[in-house]
Design goal:
The protein is of the alpha/beta class and 546 residues long. The protein is built from 14 helices and 27 strands. β20 and β21 form a beta hairpin. α1 packs antiparallel against α2, α1 runs parallel beside α7 and α2 crosses α3. It is globular and about 70 Å long. The mean pLDDT is 91.
Length: 546
């Protein structure tokens, strides 16, 4: 992707998803664009036909330009055609994490303002326990299910891609219009809906896949409700490459899927590489089509991973709100990189300015730790804000810079190194967790006086969730009973592994819990361990035939 000068947007056919697909389908219609792990595949032309026919079906259901539509679906061909179909209408794709339930689900439904939800039959039952906000109708996919009485119900036949006859937006969809709103799982409060314009995600894809060629194939091994998966169509269509969609990640079959789909690249986020490295080594490990992997954050055993699986690797620091402003080159991985290595601002177009600043937005001296703030010389590349959350938007975009909430330092070598999150945050198995949302649910349990959720280091060098509890006077908390209570109320990845009961929380003078002290204390001898207690928490596999 390029432009004649800074500050100008690329033409629509290079940064608006339906225009990008139209252009590529005209140039290379018979080339495979998407391979599914079921064995099905679509060419560029077939993908365009599926998306346009889905757009026609959505239009018949009354979906209009600029309208948000909630999509609560597993990663199958349906979610691809629904996402791209919505973009043909100029409507907004609002995916929901498959694990959500209770208050976290309710917040997204209400905050989105959506009138329609497209929902898998296995998930419909969860809607009965929450306030449905502005929702008026539901399309049930993947079978039949009883819907809440207040919603008008459509079967999946209403979204069948039967014909391409729809009224195209006039004027055409523009680069600054949002194609999606992606909820961040709220690391410092309730989940925030990141508004993602077409050019925002197109640039993110172009920078992320800047090493790609037309014969590359990217494996979407992240669920499609993450922007890390939904950006892939932008990236591969921009290059004229292809992609493969993995419905359900399983460690023991992952490399088999890589071989089956002919994938040459993928993301390795969180503990995924650790899980793969824990598998017994096989002589065939390096016999796979992978050429490059993107690992975030970069693990200390990265060189060993590269040697074992025969791949190159690069890393970056980015987030839903912006693309990879800081990114490494391809790493030879002859030796481990220093802890927290992210790379450096890339000398490519568009140009990102980065600074490390203190709490008052003053740039910190060279070598000191500061919050990473970013701006870009192309408009709309950084998200314009959070949906229906003006105060959070103003805070994050203050003084003309987007504040990432990440603390970094710049080394003498010019590379940047991640240090920590500025605010309290939790990240487990690649999922961001809102400590405040988790604490809110814990406080609903009888006898809990106060609660604090912090990160604690687990066996795989990845954070686990520790909840520290101060009981009400005279109350006794049973950690196992509390865990069973939480399992029915929150996503599987939020259920704490460790629970510690204390007589008194460490408070500041203003009665705020000193989480820094709790993190420093970590796992103490009196901490209860869910896994040692034999309580296993598994995610529900949606739409997967057993």
């Amino acid at each position: 992707m390029s432009s004649e000068q800074p500050g100008r947007l690329p033409p629509r056919e290079k940064c608006v998803l339906p225009a990008m697909l139209d252009r590529r389908a005209a140039e290379m219609g018979d080339k495979t664009l998407i391979v599914f792990d079921s064995g099905e595949s679509w060419t560029y032309s077939e993908t365009r036909r599926q998306a346009r026919a889905t757009a026609a079906a959505l239009q018949r259901l009354g979906i209009a330009r600029g309208e948000p539509v909630l999509v609560w679906m597993p990663s199958t061909s349906d979610v691809i055609r629904i996402h791209i179909g919505l973009t043909y209408l100029g409507a907004i794709f609002v995916p929901i994490n498959l694990a959500l339930k209770g208050s976290t689900l309710e917040h997204i439904i209400r905050n989105s303002g959506a009138k329609m939800i497209i929902c898998h039959a296995d998930l419909v039952g969860r809607l009965g326990a929450v306030d449905l906000g502005a929702l008026q109708s539901i399309v049930v996919m993947g079978g039949d299910a009883a819907r809440p009485a207040t919603l008008k119900k459509y079967s999946e036949d209403a979204l069948a891609p039967k014909d391409e006859a729809f009224q195209e937006p006039n004027p055409p969809v523009q680069p600054w219009e949002p194609h999606g709103i992606f909820y961040t799982s709220g690391t410092t409060g309730v989940s925030k809906g990141v508004i993602c314009p077409h050019v925002h995600t197109a640039v993110m894809g172009a920078v992320t896949f800047r090493f790609f060629k037309e014969d590359d194939r990217f494996l979407m091994n992240l669920p499609y409700f993450h922007l890390g998966a939904a950006l892939v169509p932008f990236g591969v269509i921009g290059v004229g490459a292809s992609m493969a969609l993995l419905q359900d990640f399983q460690t023991h079959t992952f490399m088999d899927v890589v071989r089956k789909t002919g994938s040459t690249s993928c993301f390795l986020l969180g503990a995924v590489s650790n899980f793969l490295m824990k598998q017994p080594p096989k002589p065939s490990d390096s016999d796979n089509p992978l050429r490059t992997v993107i690992q975030v954050p970069l693990a200390q055993d990265a060189p060993e991973f590269c040697r074992r699986f025969g791949v190159n690797m690069h890393t970056a620091i980015d987030m839903t709100e912006m693309g990879p402003a800081i990114m490494s080159d391809l790493l030879t991985m002859e030796k481990p990189m220093p802890h927290g290595f992210c790379g450096r601002p890339q000398d490519i177009w568009p140009h990102f300015d980065v600074r490390l600043v203190d709490e008052n937005d003053n740039e910190v001296p060279h070598g000191e730790v500061g919050e990473l703030v970013v701006r870009c010389d192309m408009p709309w590349v950084i998200s314009p804000g959070y949906h229906n959350m003006p105060e959070a938007t103003a805070k994050a975009w203050r003084n003309g810079w987007f504040h990432t909430g990440d603390s970094l330092r710049r080394g003498a070598d010019g590379n940047y190194y991640f240090v920590d999150r500025v605010k309290d945050s939790l990240r487990r198995r690649g999922e961001n967790i809102s400590s405040s949302e988790l604490e809110s649910e814990v406080l609903r349990y009888d006898g809990v006086g106060d609660a604090a959720a912090v990160a604690a280091r687990g066996e795989f060098a990845e954070d686990e969730v520790l909840v520290v509890i101060e009981p009400k006077a005279g109350a006794t908390i049973d950690p196992a009973a509390l865990t069973r209570f939480l399992i029915d109320r929150i996503p599987h990845f939020m259920v704490p592994r460790f629970i510690r009961i204390v007589e008194k929380m460490p408070y500041t003078e203003t009665h705020k819990v000193q989480k820094t002290k709790l993190r420093a204390e970590g796992i103490t001898p009196d901490t209860w361990d869910r896994e040692k207690a034999g309580i296993v928490v598994k995610r529900q596999r949606i739409g997967v035939k057993s």
